[in-house]
């Protein structure tokens, strides 16, 4: 896997670093394939050295995935021993949704249903936000994972709902996921106006995440807030066809709170 990306800064001598991945894994099926390969996704995560992983479109006990708990298998294979699954919808006798993998113990895990409105002639799925707290070298953080709706009308409802949940948390926040939105569109502008920062500041082709073959746009992000609590050391997008999206990795230095 060849990464595309750039570095923002270098860590302080005594800085605490945290590597965060976000990856829409399409039930662990490779690009233009319907046969899941959990080992491939697990290998990518292991080789990345990520401490926190946000997964979207991850299956649990569905027919298409062989009736397995994909998140539990990936946790076992990667050694990221703390995990949290969130059901978005029932599917093929099981469910599909979101997952968080962590090197650190998780606490205060919550699943929040996001608002949705039916639109004539369009399929509108059910979407969730997952939140949990971790402590990294005595520094508490809230981590959150989501997958926003395809339609801008629904995303306009979901962004303020997400912000309302995260604003109530006492700790600095890292939010990852598939936002189904380009960086210069109204959805991401709404996040940025609320004080969220993106780990990718250039928003050029080095940040493209879809399709995994010849990517041409960015739909996946790692956001953080407040700015003062983090220093972005690097942002990378790994080149692999293990899914239809590409995994992105943001490396942070955690700045001590005054």
Output the CATH topology. Deoxyribonuclease I, Chain A
Q: Which bin fits the share of residues in helices?
A: 10-25%
Structural class: alpha+beta
**Unreliable runs:** none
- Can you tell me the number of structural domains? 1
How much strand content do the residues show? 35-45%
What is the H-and-E element order?
Answer: EEHEHEEEEEHEHEEEE
Q: How many beta strands in the DSSP annotation?
A: 13
Instruction: Compute the separation of the termini in Å.
Output: 39 Å
Give the averaged pLDDT, no decimals. 94
Strand order of the largest sheet: 1-12-13-2-3-5-4
Query: What is the tally of helical segments?
Result: 4
Q: Supply the CATH superfamily name.
A: Endonuclease/exonuclease/phosphatase
CATH C-level label: Alpha Beta
Task: Indicate the radius of gyration in whole angstroms.
Answer: 17 Å
The main pleated sheet reads as: 7 strands, mixed
Shape: globular
What is the CATH-assigned architecture? 4-Layer Sandwich
Summarize the structure.
This is Metal-dependent hydrolase. With 258 residues, the protein is of the alpha+beta class. The protein has helices spanning 38-48, 70-78, 152-167, 186-193, and strands spanning 2-7, 16-24, 52-60, 82-91, 94-102, 107-113, 128-136, 139-147, 173-178, 197-198, 220-225, 230-239, 248-254.
């Amino acid at each position: 896997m060849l990464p595309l990306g750039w570095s923002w800064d270098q860590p302080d001598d005594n800085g605490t670093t945290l590597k965060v991945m976000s990856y829409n894994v399409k039930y662990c099926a490779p690009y233009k394939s319907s046969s899941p390969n959990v080992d491939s996704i697990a290998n990518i995560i292991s080789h990345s050295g990520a401490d926190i992983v946000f997964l979207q479109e991850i299956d649990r006990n569905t027919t298409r995935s062989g009736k397995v708990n994909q998140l539990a298998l990936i946790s076992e294979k990667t050694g990221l021993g703390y995990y949290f699954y969130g059901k978005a919808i029932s599917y093929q006798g099981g469910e599909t949704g979101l997952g968080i993998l962590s090197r650190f113990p998780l606490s205060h895990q919550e699943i929040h249903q996001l608002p949705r409105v039916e639109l004539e002639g369009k399929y509108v799925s059910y979407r969730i936000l997952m939140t949990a707290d971790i402590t990294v070298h005595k520094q508490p953080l809230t981590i959150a994972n989501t997958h926003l709706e395809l339609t801008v009308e629904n995303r306009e409802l979901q962004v303020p709902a997400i912000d309302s949940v995260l604003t109530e948390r006492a700790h600095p926040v890292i939010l990852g996921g598939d936002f189904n939105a380009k960086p210069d569109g109204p959805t991401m502008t709404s996040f940025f106006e609320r004080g969220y920062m993106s780990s990718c500041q250039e928003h050029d082709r080095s940040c493209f995440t879809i399709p995994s073959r010849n990517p041409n746009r960015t739909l996946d992000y790692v956001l953080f807030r407040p700015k003062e609590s983090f220093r972005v050391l690097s942002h990378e997008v790994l080149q692999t066809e293990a899914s239809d999206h590409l995994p992105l990795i943001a490396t942070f230095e955690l700045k001590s709170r005054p």
